[in-house]
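Re: export button greyed out
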Amino acid sequence: MADTEGFEEFYVATIGRLLGQLYPVTGDLHEAEEIVQEAYARASVRWARLRDYDVPEAWVRRVAMNLAADRGRRLQRQARALLRAGPPPQVPPVSIEALALAEALRTLPMHQRQAIVLHHLADLPLEEVAATLGTRSGTVKSWLARGRRALAARLGDPEEVLS
Amino acid sequence: MPDLRGRLQELADAAARDGVTPGPAHAIRRGRQRRRRIAGGMASLLVVAVVAGATGTGQLGNQPSRPVTPATTPSPAPALRVQTEKPRPGSLEEDAFRQLTSELRRCPGGSSIPADLIGYVWSEKYQRLWMVAAKQPPAQKTRFCWTSGLFDATGNGSRWGARRVATQTSPLTSLGGGYDSGLWEIQGRVSKKATRLQLRFRDGRAPMDLAVIDAGDRYPVNFYVGFFSQPHASFQRDGWAADTLTAVDAAGRTVTSCRVGPKGGGTPKCPQN
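Workaround output, generated via the alternate export path:
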């Protein structure tokens, strides 16, 4: 069996979902595309082993989330000088509400953003979010609570109880 | 904000609809290129290690050796050889240290205080690199900062956030995390009096010696790490297999002991930081 057998099908079946999950984390569609492609490139060389995993997508997601965190830090350093005057991040056409959420997400620390996306969009339970982000579930719980509070405050309904 | 999920889903759908990726064939090509680059780097590293071993010094020729007091020389688990040499440019270790340095910028003093590489171990069994780095406190402050990370051979990994020690007096602290394929990591800081650290398990397996990393004279504690396997199904059913940590001094006396598993037996729970 070829080392990449089944990889194309896996890629086609999951790329849209992972791109959708990475975009709210990065806030920039180009950035999300690049990160997701790099994560799949890393998966392709391990595919002989990964294809036997119950959920190989979880591995790719984890790699992508780590890459996003790394790039986030790098960008923070570069952004001060470059991005203020540069073009706005590339965003796909969405409703005002969703755009407001994307803007608000960008103000959160990366780990809170990741936790919110993994829990509320990817529907992962706390334990799995914790495993993906390499931390404990208690920490994830706290990131989620802080992140949701910050989002609610920015989006103008701080009284709302978030669940 | 009751529609958080709905708005997130809208963003996700838009990205999936409008995002452009070059396709699986490109991912495969890119993966192969990356593997060739890494293989080249690892081969160079191996040559350096062999040369260093042949000289009988275990040190890279032009790197200063870290002072180690014989009485506190750690006895790491045989599978985990502690290394403290400055990483070679372009190596996995250098990349890992860069990532930890970036993490430590969150500590008081920011980037004005340089990060110190304390040490690293490579687990042959799990094909992972674990590294610990620390940072001195700013003037007039006493609590130092440290962080650690676990990386695979490609440099992809998980970092624990930078931590400023809560109290300098805890003789033993412990953090644990689970990864793919049932790999578990246990790590923390330990009193300099300890020369050996043993982890006992609840599931009947033999105790395991953890690798102790000497942090030198500039830090008041040493660090440790160990890896073990436990299937996630067993973790969900029976809880964490790790139970008790015991630190022992050079004379074989117990320095301190604490539990990483559930409470019991009158032994205190290890603090996390």
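Residues 171 and 191 of chain B are 5 Å apart (CA to CA). The button fix ships in the next patch.
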